[in-house]
Amino acid sequence: MELKDIIKEENLVYSKPKLLNDNTMHYCPGCSHGVVHKLLAEVIEELGIQEKTIGVSPVGCSVFAYNYIDIDWHEAAHGRAPAVATGISRVNPQKVVFTYQGDGDLASIGTAEIMHAANRGENIVVIFINNAIYGMTGGQMAPTTLLGQVTATTPCGRDLDRNGYPLKITELIGQLPGTSYVSRQSVHTPAASRRCRKALKKAFENAMAKKGTSFVEVVSTCSSGWRLTPIEANKWMEDNMFPFYPIGDIKDGEKAGPEAYFQQNLKTQLA
Amino acid sequence: MGELRLMKGNEVIAEAAIRCGCDAYFGYPITPQSEVMETLMNREPWDETGMVVLQAESEVASINMVYGAAGTGKKVLTSSSSPGISLMAEGISYIAGAELPCVIVNVQRGGPGLGTIQPSQADYFQSTKGGGHGDYRLIVLAPSSVQEMNDFVDLAFKLAFKYRNPAMILADGAIGQMMEKVELSDFVPRKTDTEIETEYGNWATTGKKANRSKNVITSLELDSVLMEQNNLRFQAKYRQMEEEEVRYEMIQCDDAEYILVAFGSSARICQKSVDIARAKGLKVGLIRPITLFPFPTKPIAELAERVKGFMTVEMNAGQMIEDVRLAVGCSGNSKPVIYFGRMGGIIPSPGEVVEALEQKLIGG
Amino acid sequence: MTEEIIIAGFGGQGVLSMGKILAYSGVMQGKEVTWFPSYGPEMRGGTANVTVILSDDRISSPILHEFDTAIILNQQSLDKFENEVKPGGTLLYDPNGIVHPPTRTDINIYKIDGTKIAAEMGNVKTFNMVVLGAYLKVRPVVAMESIRKGLEKSLPERHHKLIPMNLQAIEAGQQQLEAVLEV
């Protein structure tokens, strides 16, 4: 049998999503972004929402996310993606809007924006890539950097007294009544990727159904920033990240109704 | 004739926005402009025109909501006062860099820092020279009456969309808090999504259709050659504004020997100063820049040919005087250009202005 | 015709709303008007003042340092604005709480005991309308018909039932004005 006999439509076992274009990604070998981009493109394609999806890309390694997925994109300022997404979504309620943010963007400079967008229950999807380091600027400490973890700005390891605690922002977001689905996933194995894809799909379905904010953290590797090979990075993530950032759903339900927040009718009381 | 009302400048901004088919307002309360959002919330335009009004968690969030919504081709407004505008500076730079239209209202108060809530014009540099990082300009309109607060909302949107550039209405606490008779504009319906797709589908994030490539709103370009081209395109746009959009008013300049130069509230004060000076037999006129960027350089240069001198009157330490000096310098005439003003929220009196004119320019 | 007025008193005395009703009445009579308030923390109980200008011509400065008429409702405001009345101008004041009455001899001075009259009418909130009535008696810059229209425009519709009472208060003020000095 020759090669040309094998390359046939009926023998196709895998194809990349059409939404993922042929641009060469700028991500480092072993980086999780590429896999998450692919899952994202698959979900948008599967849900048939390409024409009404608008992505908001962050500042960080995924600043160029707009180069790879063929939908309309809006590139936000550092940390402000949830505010930009709020603006897009509020004036276009029929659109499906998501942000794609890293840990520096979402959990450091943009904490106010993500908290308030989620607390308002904006009908958006937030994809949060947590690799516990600043990738783009060269491996500095992130808010999610583990205690003892060596980075360019914590050369002796993250120190509690100097740098404070690693921030479990996803757990905080899960406390907000405006969220309907808050989950933590990873993409380091095919099985994990399948679970992550399912989580992303649920998040997008929630946004389409106007069910408030859906938030999916993806615990990710940064082999360049961590100074490890891709295989070592996966192992390091399993050994060190997962115990502190456990994988699984944190909240899966509905955003809170007003009942729990009205003990009496304040409007008539003040009038 | 449109509907006549007695309204505060801040209230008129809100009413004019609803009437000109504005799609959204995002803002954060700060004195002396909080009536803008309060009026919008009371008017409930979401029922009437479908306009979105949202109180954001900060000015930083407000301007980024504007950035997002403006990217979709909508008419979007925000307002704040000086400290809040400083917080917005980053977002405004992004909006200018991404070439999006929007309107920002600054009801100025005195600074620096938390300063005072009383009126000021100390954000002239910030508004006309950029304000945020990078080489960009805003179209800056300076209303000097409540009527102009009404008229400039629509004008600012028209200019913002013509140039795909943020436009600022630079008012101050006096214009914002003052009530005057105002003739309101007629209602213009908001653009439909189909109209927006037709008119702005080549750049706005309206959702990628099968028949077009994806639209990306961004100010990022890491290739220096391309980034320089972007900058050159912006600059060409600013030069076109200088050619086509200069607006100003001249009052009693025909036979004037001395010219007051003032914008916004100061120009109102100076109108009275001109009357007082004329009553004393002094030939004084007033030129009121309406667009602060683009600045009316040519008319000032032309006046420099025939008058004896200029005095700028500003509620700041002397900012616009730099542009007046440039204009007079351009004319090749070495006529004196001096400044008189008050700071810290103090509004100069018409008499004070005349006194300064007599002592510093005419007698000086 | 141009009339430049300062109205000054305590926050809560209805200073700003008196100015607004007067200004709106001017609009109803086809005049140019400006209403320029002191703003900020004063509105929470300190002193409040508003400059109202009515004119047949385009109004230049909305902010003034001398006035045709000062309407004064407390001692602090009297101290501050007595000297800002133009020679030959008018000063109208409510004597309630005034311990140092005006001393100028080159202006017209009138008194209106708005506090007492409003209390006698059974509604202290109409105090500012009593004072407005007294002002209109001295300076009939707008017609009563315009005042009625101004009230309709200034007050939210749910308060329109109060308009007759306000008009009565204005009439009472017109009737009970006292001249102190006429130059």
Set out the fold topology:
The complex is a heterotrimer of chains A (271), B (364) and C (183).
Chain A: H1 3-6, H2 33-47, E1 53-57, E2 72-75, H3 81-91, E3 96-102, H4 103-109, H5 111-120, E4 124-130, H6 160-163, H7 169-174, E5 179-186, H8 190-208, E6 213-219, H9 223-226, H10 230-244, E7 248-252, H11 266-270
Parallel strand pairs in A: 1-2, 1-3, 3-4, 4-6, 5-6
Antiparallel strand pairs in A: 5-7
Helix pairs in contact in A: 2-8, 3-5, 4-5
Chain B: E1 4-8, H1 9-19, E2 24-27, H2 35-43, H3 45-48, E3 52-55, H4 59-71, E4 76-80, H5 82-97, E5 102-108, H6 124-128, E6 139-141, H7 146-163, E7 166-172, H8 173-177, E8 179-183, H9 193-200, E9 216-217, H10 224-244, E10 248-251, E11 258-261, H11 264-279, E12 284-289, E13 291-293, H12 297-304, E14 309-314, H13 320-330, E15 337-341, H14 350-362
Helix pairs in contact in B: 1-2, 1-7, 4-5, 11-14, 12-13
Chain C: E1 2-10, H1 15-28, E2 32-37, E3 47-55, E4 67-72, H2 75-81, E5 85-93, E6 108-111, H3 114-120, H4 127-138, H5 144-154, H6 163-175, E7 178-181
Parallel strand pairs in C: 1-4, 4-5, 5-6
Antiparallel strand pairs in C: 1-3, 2-3, 6-7
Helix pairs in contact in C: 1-5, 3-4, 4-6
Features:
heterotrimer, A: 271 residues, alpha/beta, Rossmann fold, seven-stranded mixed β-sheet, C: alpha/beta
Structural class of chain A: alpha/beta
> What is the CATH level 1 assignment of chain A?
Alpha Beta
- Total strands of chain A: 7
CATH fold description of chain C: Pyruvate-ferredoxin Oxidoreductase, domain 3
**Element order of chain C: H for helix, E for strand:** EHEEEHEEHHHHE
Going by helix content, strand content and strand pairing, the class of chain C is: alpha/beta
Shape of chain C: globular
Question: Mean pLDDT across all residues of chain C, rounded?
Answer: 94
Please outline the major beta sheet of chain C: 7 strands, mixed
Biggest interface, CB < 8 A: A-B, 32 and 41 residues
Question: Can you count the helices of chain A?
Answer: 11
